[in-house]
Amino acid sequence: MADWPDSVLRRFHAVPPNPRENDFYGPWNKLLSYLFPPASDFTVVPQSYLLSTSRETADFVVEYEILYNNVPVLIVEIKPPGNLRLPTAREEADIQIRRRIRDLSEDCLLPTLHAVSAFGTQVAFYRMATGHQIIPERIPPDPTLLTDTAPLHWWSCDVLQDEGRRKFRSMVTEIEQACENLE
Fold first, then answer.
1. Which pLDDT value is given to residue 54?
2. pLDDT in tens, 105-164
3. Domain residues of the chain, as ranges?
4. Do residues 159 and 167 lie in contact, with contact meaning Cβ atoms separated by under 8 Å?
């Protein structure tokens, strides 16, 4: 399977060492706009909203919603890559993506709503199919034992490496085929 175009790779390779979350907004926007071109019926829509879990700091969630004729078909949320090693950051990312899936699922006309949680280029793939079960299944916290509710291996694919690129392209192909079936 072909690599990403040089224009996309250059944006990702321009990310500085020790990057912040917003250093990845441009590269992800470039990749998503390549996969869902503006001339198509897909639209890449950046979204941001205030995370209301903290009173001490203003924390925003930034995501991309990919719409097909104003219907959500894919969600991509971006987090700073340095936080991937932190179990609490993964847990928070997992909770946030599940909430967005739940919020947008009623508007999705496809049999499956896809979502991607990204820490830099490391991605975890989520999906909610008919029946409203989100995969991967949620790991509930144990009230007395330390529980990794969002294991590191969920983010084992790097979108710039062969396996991650193949999985990402496969997901996009599935979305495109499902959208063709709507017509």
1. 52
2. 999 989 999 999 999 999 999 999 867 899 999 988 888 888 889 999 999 999 999 999
3. 6-182
4. no
Q: Where are the beta strands (DSSP E) in the chain?
A: 42-51, 59-68, 71-79, 112-119, 122-129, 133-135, 157-158
Q: Looking at domain 6-182, which CATH architecture does it have?
A: Alpha-Beta Complex (3.90)
- 72: closest CA among 41, 104, 27? 104
CA nearest neighbour of 36 among 66, 6, 5: 66
Q: Which pairing describes strands 133-135 and 112-119: parallel, antiparallel, or unpaired?
A: unpaired
Q: What is the spatial distance between Cα 164 and Cα 156, in angstroms, rounded to a whole number? A: 8
Token digits of residue 12: 């990702």
Burial class (CB within 10 angstroms; exposed 0-12, middle 13-18, buried 19+) of 75:
buried
